[in-house]
Amino acid sequence: MLPSFPHADNSFSTPESLAELGVVLRQARGDDIPWLMELYRESRAEELAPIPWSDDAKRSFLDSQFELQHRHFVSMFPFGRFLIIESAGQPVGRLYLSNEDPELVADICITQRARNKGYGSRLLQAVIDAANARRVNVELHVLPRNTSAIRLYERLGFAFAEDQGSHLLMRRLADQTGAGRRVDPR
Ligand SMILES: CC(C)(COP(=O)(O)OP(=O)(O)OC[C@H]1O[C@@H](n2cnc3c(N)ncnc32)[C@H](O)[C@@H]1OP(=O)(O)O)[C@@H](O)C(=O)NCCC(=O)NCCS
Fold this sequence. Notes:
This protein is an alpha+beta fold. It has one domain (16-172): Gcn5-related N-acetyltransferase (GNAT) (Aminopeptidase, 3-Layer(aba) Sandwich). It is 35% helix and 23% strand. The chain contains 5 helices and 7 strands. It has helices at 16-19, 33-48, 55-76, 119-133, 147-155, and strands spanning 23-27, 81-87, 90-97, 103-110, 138-142, 159-163, 168-172. It has a 7-stranded mixed β-sheet with strand order 1-2-3-4-5-7-6, with helices on both faces. Helix 2 crosses helix 3. The N and C termini lie far apart (39 Å). 26% of the residues are buried. Coenzyme A binds at residues 43, 108-110, 115-121, 140, 142, 146, 148-149, 151-152, 186.
């Protein structure tokens, strides 16, 4: 059985910029796990497509990877915010934040059908604004080949901080004024 999500401080209200699109954030629950596994499978389907494994083998590999990742996140971030992104009452993504200094975006993933609607940039801008209010930097890890995500992060003011081999660490420095550098949401 998978460990449950921490209940530490999971308050992170839905940013107005998303609420106006009908999107809400809520704390992840144990009964979200099957949907989160589906999201995870979908997010890695393209990467595994060229591998000559059966569908069953791919599924059990991805499910075991999800489980390892879940255990890692909940043990690494006992005070983290584990959020489900919902649109029209249905989950469309997840946003996991370390809720530390620096604020680490441990994961952001939106289901394919809900991408390119501005959700990701508005969410990240809200994370940046909240971190700015606390005067903390925001960090995230990205695969070097994920050039679309890198383009999005650069638009939001993230810069490369460290090459960690498999991943790149990107950092968005806190605005010293705490006012938040606004980027037009898309
Ligand atoms: C990255 C992601 C969260 C962005 O959310 P989104 O709601 O689609 O983003 P927005 O609509 O606000 O902005 C669109 C931008 O997202 C990025 N994007 C779009 N599709 C993407 C994809 N499949 N993978 C990565 N980035 C993508 C692009 O930069 C795009 O802008 P572009 O016109 O310059 O190409 C979302 O695409 C996603 O979940 N991708 C798959 C998982 C992933 O790559 N997560 C990041 C891991 S570090």
